[in-house]
Amino acid sequence: AVARHRPWPRAVMDAALWEEAARLLGRGELSLAGLWAEPDVVHLALLEEGAPATLAVLSLSCREGHFPSVGAHHAPAIRLERTIRDLFGLEPQGLPDKRPWLDHGRWPRRRPLSPGAAGAAAESPQPYAFLPVEGEGLTQIPVGPVHAGIIEPGHFRFTTNGETVVRLEERLGYVHRGLEGLLSGIVPLQAARLAGRASGDSTVAYAYAFARALEAALEIEAPPRAQWLRALLAELERLANHLGDIGAICNDASFALIQTHCAILRERVLRTAESCFGHRLMRDRIVPGGVAADLDGAGAAAMRDLLREVRHVFPVLVKLYDNTASLLDRTVATGILSPALARRFGAGGFVGRASGRPFDARRWPGYPPYDRLTFEVPTLQNGDVNARVWIRIREVEQSLSLIEQILEGLPAGPVARDVPETPAAAAEGMAMVEAFRGDLLVWLRIDADGQIARCHLRDASWFQWPLLEAVIEGNIVADFPLCNKSFNCSYAGHDL
What we know:
It contains 16 helices and 15 strands. By secondary structure, the protein is α+β, with helices and mostly antiparallel strands. The protein has a four-stranded mixed β-sheet with strand order 1-13-14-15.
C-alpha cells in the first residue's frame, strides 16, 4: 500500500495481479474508472459498484518500458492505452489496436512525456489507417475534422450501405494541448486555473474535482459555506448545459422553436451566474480551499427570480416536446445504447442513466453538501435519443430543486481557507465529482516543495465516445447529428 494517498487506497502490485484485475474488468465484475501513466509507472483506477461501492488505484512499475494490456481484456481501456503509448512511450503488451491516438504526427517530439523525449524526433505524418469494412455497395463518407458552425474539430468516417450506417469510426485528438505536461511542476493555484480550462463547458466541474483532490492530499476541508456554494455553481453549470442540449437536439430534428426558448433560458442562467459570481461560465470561481466569490442578498434574490422563470417556461417546452409527433418520430428508437453496453463501458451521466446505469458521483462516492440535500437520480432503460432527452429534462428539474435547497440552507461563515504552501511531505489526492456529462476523475501528486508533480484529468467522454460509434450503426446518416448531440461528448476534455 502507498502511504499518503487519499481518500481511497493505492497499492503497488506485480504484473500477475495487474492482469487479474484486467480479467475482472473483462468479466464485468469491476468498472474502469481511469487508466493513466507516469514515465515508468501505470495506474489503474477500479470501481466496484454496488452497496457500498468502493474505489481503489492499482499501480505497476514499467521500468522496462512495457506493461500487460488492460485493453486486451476490456475494450474501454484501449484508447486510454493508445494515449499512454503516444505520451509516455510505454508499450501495452497485447494491445489489440496499436495505431496512434492523440499523436497525429504533427508534434515536434514523439512521446513528449517520456524521459527520453529529447531524443525522440517526430516522424513524417502517415495516413491514419481506418479499420477496413468489406461488403458490396458500401460507400465511405468522411466528415470533419472541420465542421460547420462553432464546434471543436473531430473526424468521423462513415461507411454506409445506401443511407444506412454500417460502421462509424472516430478520429480525435485535434485539440490536444499537452495539458498533462503543463500541469507538472507548477504551484497548485496555477494548476487549478489550467484544470478549469480543460473543457470550457465543464469549467466548474474540473475546478471542483481538482480542488477536492488537492484538499484530500493536504488533509484539509473547505469551509461549510464554500462547500454549499460549490454545489450551487455546479448545479448552475448543469442547468445551463442541459437546457442548451435539449434545445440543440430539437434543432437537429428541425424543430427550432424549442431550441429558441431553451437558448433564452440558458442565457438567463449565464447572465444570472455573471451577476452573482462575476463570470458567465463561473470560471475560476472554485479555488483550492474554497471559492473566490460569495453570494450576497441581491445575488440570492436574482437566483430565486431565475428559478421562477425557468419553472414557468420549461414545463411548457417539455409538454411541447412530448406532444410533437414529428419530433418524437426522430428521437424515439433512434441511436439505442443497450444497458449491457452502457455497463460494460461504465458510461456515466445522462448517457448511462438513459440506459439503466444509475451511477451518480453525488450519491457515491458522494461529497458535501449533497449528503444533506434531497435529490433523485432518474434512470430509464430505452437508451435512445428520446431517453437521453428525458434524463436531461428530469435532471433540470432536480437541479432547480437543489438550487432552491442550497439557497434555503446556505450556512454563514467564510468562503475560503488558507492552503498550506508546502505540505508536511509529498502526498497524493484523488476526487470524483459529477459533471453535467457524468463522473469526472482527478488524481494528483504534490511534492514536498508544494508543487504539482503529476496531475491526471479523466473526463466522462473517454467512456462515451466509443459508444457513439456503436449506437449509430443501423441508423441513417441523417440521424447522426441527433445521436451525436444526444451524447454531446467533449473533444477538449478527451484530447487534453
